[in-house]
Amino acid sequence: MAVEKLILREVDDAEAADAAGQPRYDWPEYRSTSLRAPKQKLLLLPEELMPKGGPVFGESAVHPLEADLTRQHEGEPLGERIIVHGRLLGSDGKPIRSSLIEIWQANSGGRYIHQNDQHPAPLDPNFTGAGRVLTDDDGYYRFVTIKPGAYPWRNHPNAWRPAHIHFSVFGRAFTDRLVTQMYFPGDPLFSEDPIFNSVRDERARRRMISQFDWEATTPEWALGYRFDIVVGGRNGTPMEDDH
Amino acid sequence: MAARLEPTPSQTVGPFFSFGLTTRAANELVSADDARAVEVVGTVFDGSGRPVPDAMVEVWAQEVGWGRCGTDVDGRYGFRVAKPAAADGQAPHLDVLVFARGLLKPVLTRMYFPDEVDANAADPVLAALADDDGRGTLVATADGDTVRFDLRLQGDGQTTFFAL
């Protein structure tokens, strides 16, 4: 039987990324992209050839204390204690259950525990800055941590990253994998940050900013921030309601 | 129909992800004495041909599972995997995502196995690639007891990447 030869359509990343509210690979304002962004056209696999399924994590994979970044050492870390919580949802609005969420961040002085971060802000012996949690049946997650500080980097003169918490999440399919950064409302550094602004659509950028949450704020203990995360939906193809 | 929610945008993993993501070993998908075990090694290169020491490679195949490995100072990573079966007319392969500082979103590719010559020749995705070079970037090469799968993010011999 003769099989019809598959033709893989080429995708213009800049066009597809802008339409999908995602960053482009090639974004010169963020200098590290210059030697790492692929330059050849991406190829669009038909839906049936995209990766099927994705990893499933059992409850034993994560200890409950891993969701509290303020209790990983003998003493409490310095800084503003916060609760970061929200839901992990598919683009169909349904919760993604028992999914692994991993976070990492700088301490309140803006210093990462990573050995390559040597800028002159102090390390905090009571703060590592990494946490993990599994979503519950509503896709809900909750972390207790401290608010990270802004930190300087060498991308351009007087470059500072807005305060952020890195999030890594899994969706239903391997290709729903998302690594993003959660920002804090009203940060004065947004306008000059090439990573935040690599997402060109302003409404899409807003989806990376947590909301201050009075309901979750706990008297005499911690401020609350809400951060819902939506995964899924292919970026290489326009969405149905983009017509 | 329920309103479609707009996805949260991707952002780079940045340079400091290792203490959050890759301190736990997650690169041995099968045990060493598993008869199906295949050791995969590779290096991630940038557009100047230099190794990328702050990348993270994730692999997935439904029947084999998921794995993750950060690159070392020389850009190297490694997995012990099992070769999945051929399915849906496709040659056995792993789905691969690479994350790194300088990648604002991951790149998606496939790794095929060098000893599957016939299946690779009949694979619809490999057959659809325009030339031998493009195909070659997706097929690992035999290297002693291991298979080598280097990933080139940019430049000469760039790995073929698929749209997410």
Task: Offer a concise description of the structure.
The complex is a heterodimer of chains A (243) and B (164). Chain A contains two helices and 13 strands; from the N terminus they run βαβββββββββαβββ. Chain A is mainly β and 243 residues long.
Can you describe what's shown?
Chain A is mostly beta strands. Chain A has a single domain, classed as Aromatic compound dioxygenase (Protocatechuate 3,4-Dioxygenase, subunit A), CATH 2.60.130. Helix content of chain A is 5%, strand content 25%. Chain A contains 2 helices and 13 strands. Chain A has helices spanning 13-20, 202-206, and strands at 9-11, 42-44, 81-90, 100-105, 130-134, 140-146, 151-153, 159-161, 164-169, 178-183, 211-212, 223-226, 229-231. In chain A, the strands form 4 sheets. In chain A, strands 3, 6, 11, 12 and 13 form a 5-stranded mixed sheet that branches. In chain A, a hairpin with a 5-residue loop joins β7 (151-153) and β8 (159-161). Chain A starts with 8 loop residues before the first strand and ends in a 12-residue tail after the last strand. The relative contact order of chain A is 0.20. Chain B is mainly beta and 164 residues long. Chain B has one domain (18-152): Sandwich (Protocatechuate 3,4-Dioxygenase, subunit A), CATH 2.60.130. Chain B contains 4 helices and 9 strands, in the order αββββββαααβββ. In chain B, strands 1, 4, 7, 8 and 9 form a 5-stranded mixed sheet that branches. In chain B, β7 and β8 form a beta hairpin. Classes of the chains: A mainly beta (243), B mainly beta (164). Chains A and B meet through α1, β2, β4, β10 and α2 of A and α1, β5 and α3 of B.
**Name of the CATH architecture of chain B:** Sandwich
Average pLDDT metric of chain B: 94
Order of helices and strands of chain B: HEEEEEEHHHEEE
Report the C-alpha radius of gyration of chain A, rounded. Answer: 20 Å
Mean pLDDT of chain A equals 93
The description of the largest β-sheet of chain A is: 5 strands, mixed
Query: First CA to last CA of chain B: what distance?
Result: 25 Å
* Main beta sheet strand tally, sense and closure of chain B: 5 strands, mixed
- Taken as a percent bin, the fraction of beta residues of chain B is 25-35%
CATH class of chain B: Mainly Beta
* Tally of individual helices of chain B: 4
Number of domains of chain B: 1
In CATH terms, the superfamily of chain A is Aromatic compound dioxygenase
How many DSSP H or I helices of chain A? 2
Number of domains of chain A: 1
Largest interface: A-B, 83 and 61 residues
Category by helix and strand content of chain B? mainly beta
Name the structural class of chain A: mainly beta
Low-confidence stretches of chain B: none
